[in-house]
Amino acid sequence: MLTTIDRPSDARFAPPGRVPLPALNAGVNNWVPHDLVMRDTWFPLAHAAGIGTRPVRRSVYSHPYFLWREDGVAVAADHHPNEGCMARGNPMTNAFGRYPVMEQYGIVWGWFGNPDAADPVHLPSLPFLPPKGGLPGYMTGTVRFDCSAPISLENLIDLTHADFLHANVVGDEKSESESIEVSWTSETVTMVRSCTGKTVAPVMKFFSGIRQPTQNIRQVIHIYLRSHCAIAYGRFSPGDDVPLFHPCVPETRDRTRLDYVMNTSNAGFMFRHVMPKASYLVSRQDSSMTSPQSPRYMRQTKRRDLHSKFDAAGQRYRLLMQDLAARQAAGDFAYRDNVSADCGDLIGLRRELFAF
Amino acid sequence: MTQPPIWWSLARSEEVTGTTLLAADIGDQPVVLWRDKQGVARALEDRCPHRRAPLSLGCVRGNGWIQCGYHGWSYDGATGRLAEIPNMKGDQRFPPLYKAERFGVAEGGGLVRVCLDANAAPPALPAAALKLSGTSFVAMAQDRYVAALFDAPGLLIGIRGVVFTPYLMSELREEDGKLVMERSCQWKGFAWPSAFSSDFPITLTTRTDPETGETGMVLRDTEMNTLLTAVVAPVPAARGVTAIRWRAAIGAKRPGLHAKLLVGNSAFRVFQAVDAAALRVLKPSASLHGDDLRTARLARSEAA
């Protein structure tokens, strides 16, 4: 079924138990992700292990963040220490040009927005990562996209593309059944894709020793809208549980940085080491599509995108981002839902595998 | 409100002399440049009002006048007025109509700027010139050239040992009337592909004039040392060609092997040709921001 409607009916989209959002002016087809700027949120700026005494530079929406450690504690400033005293007055920092910083899950997080509103309660829940970090380096990495961060996240939450773009890693589109469920809050959107009898992922065939021709999969994508962080959690049967922390930091409005962490601790030796590196291949495959997409979403157009029933999550993501942006544009930066509440049950985390 | 007159960097100071004539153009308007006896750069339409011959085919006379090579008519660069017709003997007084089209000239920072409006107020210009310089011509329209400079500078310029990545520290924005952006760069040689690099050792900050496309560049390392500064001035020339005058200077403090190798005249280059196949598939991003910023500027000036 194809549709070009601007706002999908909530009856079709709303899972049981969820209150439909009120109708808004924005629409899935009036989506200019490039112009959506989220503030009052924690952005994951760096792997904690990558921050030492020498300043390293990051950007959030073109705003400079210099990160380093003072007495072992991560700090962030809007200027390099070598630049000396600069004119102050950055409303997102204190009087010394320092941004609020947190270190959690092995990630250094920088607050972007009103510094007085910075609160650990707004840090996204990532229950599959050890709170104090410490996962081995081979489970972490950095990749970049030259596209808008929301385009990258929309790409992630639309997993049906993987059967084509990433077939050589995760397997082709053939399956006995496929369903997609979407749920959301004002701060998150969650997609659960379930497939039975799906062609086994080549990466599991080769590195986990799966001999069966097909497997059942349950893939969850859970996006924290403001911080542009996502969880991609795949449960493969037969196979492994693969939870991925997939942030998309908008370094500029059309460049995206991912300091990812894939916790493969519970998998076999080969798969544990190889799977996190698949990001290098998969990200280039994604970039081949999202990079040319991005400029086509930089401006309003009257031409409507087409959608299928498999795009429900992506459409919801577009709407929620626009709703949040509209609220922020009206000066409302309050959190209506708690992003730090443990999301383990929501994503179906097998806690026995990820106990810290 | 009318747009302020545009001053184009039509020549490097070295190219304008008191002995030879330089033929240049602003779009389809031919211009001839030289220095008079006082060393002041002069610019006239490259067209003798007598029989329309190019004045640039003539010569500079000892007194600083420009002389047409066809019938020897001489013009004073300061006013454009006809000064002498050979063999007219004592009767060398001409009505004001007898003059070549004169253009405004302002020189500074090692570049000679020309304005088609001869009475335009000269712009504020830097006194000191960057030491290295060069001239290149590219068969590409000037607006497209500036767009490519925003989107992929590596197609147009080269800095020894430097790889321009697609990744930006800050996207194009307006700052003090210039369009400013900062691009992450790598050193050539062993480095992770930029798409997988956590940190970059150098950045290139560019400041582009929204009207002329003239772009100041600063290459800095992570310690904020200035490794190289440059100015690139793309000017629309005849037949859709872009004429580029550039100047560059190498920074004094350049820690690290790659930075130390930034020496000599070829440390900075502006290419004479563009890889058209690469250009064709180049995706616009910063250049779209440039269009938006220029549109906003225009709307502001019209509102004023």
Could you please describe the fold and organization of this structure?
The complex is a heterodimer of chains A (356) and B (304). With 356 residues, chain A is an alpha+beta fold. Chain A has two domains: 41-134, Rieske Iron-sulfur Protein; 141-298 and 305-331 and 338-351, Naphthalene 1,2-dioxygenase Alpha Subunit, Chain A, domain 1. Chain A is 19% helix and 29% strand. Chain A is built from eight helices and 15 strands. In chain A, the strands form three sheets. In chain A, strands 8, 9, 10, 11, 12, 13, 14 and 15 form an eight-stranded antiparallel sheet that branches. Chain A is globular, with a radius of gyration of 20 Å. Chain B has 304 residues and is mainly β. Chain B has two domains: 7-115, 3-layer Sandwich (Rieske Iron-sulfur Protein), CATH 2.102.10.10; 132-303, Alpha-D-Glucose-1,6-Bisphosphate, Chain A, domain 4, CATH 3.30.530. Chain B contains four helices and 19 strands. Chain B has helices at residues 142-151, 257-260, 276-280, 286-303; strands spanning 7-12, 22-26, 29-35, 41-45, 59-60, 66-67, 74-75, 82-84, 104-108, 111-115, 132-138, 157-159, 162-175, 178-187, 202-208, 215-221, 226-236, 242-250, 268-270. The model of chain B has no long low-confidence stretch (mean pLDDT 95). The chains are: A alpha+beta (356), B mainly beta (304). Chains A and B meet through strand 2, strand 8, strand 15 and helix 7 of A and strand 13 of B.
